[in-house]
Design brief:
- By secondary structure, the protein is an all-alpha fold.
- The protein is built from nine helices and no strands.
- The radius of gyration is 25 Å and the shape is elongated.
Length: 228
């Protein structure tokens, strides 16, 4: 059974995580896909990133007054790992443009700087993997297939592909066509360019030249006889 101190530390950690998650859920979708590209130049770091780091730096000083030694190391290490998981989930929720990726990269640099300030050496590597994934959104589309095959040491292939699908230009640049068929498992009703097909307007599947199955209504129809 956990001691009272352990339960208290666990509760404090959950409170931290809940508040950080709340701050992240308030982040505007335009932060990483801005309508005005100059907005990134004017404000390279997102307000959400600054709010999260302000909260962390303020609360960390208070925690240090009450925790020390192994308890402090354990708490901050786990906090760093939970923060990384929150940020990874956060990035997956966003459509990210090339310009927005500049802000994303800057935000991740700031989060990583906090990890460095805390001396969390075991957390540094996971955060570097986030920085690595940010490159997906910056490269020209034609460079992506090579990057997927050779450019990621810290991320698995499925994660990389899921991030590529969140590029703002995934459909317009027809990114899926740059990869072997079915790389993205787009599924039925989705064309090779990532666009959804309307079966009513385009009933034939390219893999099924016979078209869609006939309905009972179709089966009941008979061809008109010659001569009426």
């Amino acid at each position: 059974r956990r001691s009272g101190i352990e339960r208290g530390i666990a509760g404090l950690l959950e409170a931290f995580v809940l508040w950080i998650n709340h701050l992240l859920t308030e982040q505007p979708k335009t932060d990483y896909n801005p309508l005005d590209e100059n907005a990134v130049v004017d404000q390279p770091i997102s307000q959400t990133c600054m709010a999260v780091l302000d909260f962390l730096r303020t609360q960390v000083s208070r925690v240090r007054m009450n925790l020390n030694g192994r308890n402090a190391v354990s708490f901050f290490t786990e906090l760093g790992l939970r923060l990384k998981s929150l940020l990874q989930a956060q990035i997956r929720r966003f459509i990210i443009s090339t310009t927005g990726a500049l802000r994303l990269a800057r935000d991740l640099t700031e989060y990583q700087a906090w990890v460095g300030e805390m001396g969390l050496t075991t957390v540094a590597e996971p955060f570097e993997s986030l920085r690595e994934l940010a490159n997906i959104y910056m490269l020209p589309p034609e460079n992506l297939p090579h990057l997927v095959e050779t450019g990621f040491r810290r991320s698995n292939r499925s994660d990389v592909l899921s991030h590529i699908r969140m590029r703002a230009d995934f459909k317009t640049a027809k990114v899926a066509r740059l990869f072997p068929p079915d790389t993205f498992h787009l599924g039925a009703g989705v064309g090779p360019d990532g666009e959804t097909r309307d079966p009513a307007k385009d009933p034939k599947d390219p893999k099924d030249p016979q078209g869609p199955p006939r309905t009972p209504k179709d089966e009941g129809r008979t061809a008109p006889r010659n001569g009426g």
